[in-house]
């Protein structure tokens, strides 16, 4: 590994204004404000359980709907993750985690491959129609898949997320975010036995 594994990315459009600061070698210090309370809760879980230091500031057109803010934040978070990974030297590269949350069990697997791909399976059909309301903009769980696809695409990682079983929309969503967090934590960790890029090609 070479250099600091930190990133600061900004993105401004007519729909949102996003700033993400990320330190892969942090201790789980997280400060999130997107204007979408449940999304704040999910990103807090993601940063904390990945042991990343993560700051997110997002202002979007939540008076219309939370979709733009949620999507654009995932774009910038993915870009920050990709930038912070740098040359990817000395990392474990692969990670996976099973996360239970009461009646729910979720699994995530990550390959820091440089080839963006996402597979998302197993969510019960009722999550397409579920809204988790907060004090401000509600979070529509139908966007879960899009968040993970967007994160994977912009970080240039392969990400597989599946729900094995579950009933409560909050638990199903949170277990997935936490599974992704733990898988990422494992994948980006330094491996003392890896001296270069963990690929037979010599590059990721």
Shape, per Cα inertia axes: globular
CATH architecture: 2-Layer Sandwich
| Portion in beta strands | 25-35%
CATH structural class: Alpha Beta
Q: Work out the helicity level.
A: 25-40%
- CATH superfamily heading: Imidazole glycerol phosphate dehydratase, domain 1
Number of domains: 1
Rounded to the nearest angstrom, the radius of gyration is 16 Å
Instruction: Please report the distance between the alpha carbons of the first and last residues.
Output: 13 Å
What's the arrangement of strands in the largest beta sheet? 1-2-4-3
CATH topology: Ribosomal Protein S5, domain 2
Provide the succession of SSEs.
Answer: EEEHEHEEEEEHEH
Average pLDDT level: 95
Quick recap:
This protein is an alpha+beta fold and 204 residues long. Helices cover 32% and strands 29% of the residues.
Secondary structure elements and pairings:
Blueprint: E1 6-12, E2 16-23, E3 30-33, H1 37-50, E4 53-60, H2 67-85, E5 94-101, E6 104-111, E7 117-121, E8 131-132, E9 139-140, H3 144-155, E10 158-165, H4 169-188
Parallel strand pairs: 3-4, 7-10
Antiparallel strand pairs: 1-2, 2-4, 5-6, 6-10, 8-9
Keywords:
204 residues, alpha+beta, Ribosomal Protein S5, domain 2, four-stranded mixed β-sheet, 32% helix, imidazoleglycerol-phosphate dehydratase activity, cytoplasm, histidine biosynthesis
